């Protein structure tokens, strides 16, 4: 029973880590750039894309 819960817990922690990284990066960008700026939107999208791409690439194996 415990061994069945470990992969699920690992996936949950991994997903929470992904969301935490995205949230932190957007908050840090908001501190550096005015939120109304188009540069903020572009930078946020680029950072989120990079984090998700990195996460998916390392999650394969």
Descriptive tags:
mainly alpha, single chain, 61 residues, 2 helices
Please describe what this structure looks like.
- This protein is mainly α and 61 residues long.
- It has one domain.
- It is built from two helices and no strands.
- Helix 1 packs antiparallel against helix 2 (38-59).
- It is elongated, with a radius of gyration of 15 Å.
- The model has no long low-confidence stretch (mean pLDDT 77).
Name the beta content range.
Answer: under 5%
Number of domains: 1
Task: Specify Rg, calculated over alpha carbons.
Answer: 15 Å
**End-to-end Cα distance:** 24 Å
Q: Based on helices, strands and strand pairing, what is the structural class?
A: mainly alpha
Mean pLDDT: 77
Question: What would you say about this model in short?
Answer:
The chain is an all-alpha fold and 61 residues long. It has one domain (2-59). The protein has helices at 2-32, 38-59.
Write the layout of secondary structure elements.
Elements: H1 2-32, H2 38-59
């Amino acid at each position: 029973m415990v061994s069945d819960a470990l992969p699920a817990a690992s996936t949950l922690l991994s997903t929470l880590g992904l969301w935490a990284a995205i949230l932190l990066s957007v908050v840090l960008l908001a501190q550096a750039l005015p939120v109304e700026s188009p540069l903020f939107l572009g930078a946020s999208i680029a950072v989120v894309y990079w984090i998700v791409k990195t996460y998916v690439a390392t999650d394969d194996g």
